Amino acid sequence: MTNLLENLKISFFVLLKRMTIYFVIHSGLIRLYMHKNRRNVTILTLHGVMSEEYNREWLPLRPQIDPKRLDQGLAILSGYYNFVSLSMALDILNGKVEPVDNAMVITMDDGYVNQFELAVPICNKYDAHPIVYVVAGKGDGLTSLWFDRLDYVLQHIKSEEIALTIGDEKIVLDLRDRLVATKSYKLFRDKCKDHFVDDYTFNEYMNNLISRLETESGHSLENIQNNDLWCRLARLGSIRSYLNRYNLEIGSHTMSHYRLDKVDRLKIIQELELSKKIIEEKVGEKCIHLCYPNGDYSEEVIQLVKDGGYLSATTSDSGSNFPGQNVYKLKRVHFPLSGSMRELLFFVTFGGLRKAFSFNNSYD
Ligand SMILES: [Zn+2]
Predict the structure, then answer these.
(1) What DSSP element (H or E) covers 241?
(2) What is the mean pLDDT of the chain?
(3) Distance of CA 253 from the midpoint of ligand 1 (Å)
(4) Which helix (H) or strand (E) holds 108?
(5) pTM
(6) Is the pLDDT of residue 26 over 80?
(7) d(C-alpha 27, C-alpha 190), whole Å
(8) Segment (H or E) for 360
(9) Residue 326 and residue 319: Cα distance in Å, rounded?
(10) Predicted confidence (pLDDT) per residue in 95-115, tens digit
(11) Is 164:173 a contact under the CB 8 Å cutoff?
(12) Distance 210 CA to ligand 1 centre (A)
């Protein structure tokens, strides 16, 4: 009986939220809100864009955006927003050009091949001119990011759980089934990020753990890297050909994806300067935009980013941007991974309401 009441209560709230979203969009309230905030610049962020239809070899636990969903999402957003490049948005924010009403920028982090092959062409179809932030030190086509390596190896481990220690804390990675494993893997990543106060120890811990699991299981993402469209990072040398084919910009996501506020000053400078230099050499374009790995920054980091010749930096702070603001603290909004197109439009527009309105955790 209690369960029934609880379920009825949840269904009621879900219905209420859906009706609210329907009302806000169809009554024209959303247009009114957007008109009032038309000078704001919204920056959307995407990670992997891939579908099981393209790659059935394995399925990452970290959620990806289906290309069809991206296409539908941009179709609805293009009816409400005007897509601009990040460089154009920067001119608007810096007051150099007249604002474009309801400007929207699309950004992609990490530089996966699937972003160049699948997501960029979809963006261009809607006249969106996205920016892809690449990890310069991983642009050799041979290496992967730690969270993808871990994701892959966890799915090739025979046991149903892995007992681990982080500092004094014992933690169990529960791999019983896919749903449990997805939550457990996310929890583990978040716990590790919180625990390690410097990224040298963090990366050493992760590397040791992943290498041990790869040896035990006999499976490593890097062995299948060449044919893996889920997690393969684009070679820096191949990016020029994408720039020749598509409208896009390239930015830096540092050399090694270390969190910049968790390494020393010398390392920050190296990550910023070297990535900029290598990208400019190998891609043949000016590299003037940065994306902070994991969205983490500090005032010291910001100063070094400015000193390093970057003109902007994007964070993972949620919200929109307005002329006159600090362009080294650009806020972004996640492209919702699930929900109807109406909900997608609502959550992109009212990013701040996402937590209160989300029906489950799938938006994160
Ligand atoms: Zn990243």
Answers:
(1) helix 239-245
(2) 91
(3) 7
(4) strand 103-110
(5) 0.92
(6) yes
(7) 40
(8) none
(9) 13
(10) 999 999 999 999 999 999 999
(11) yes
(12) 18
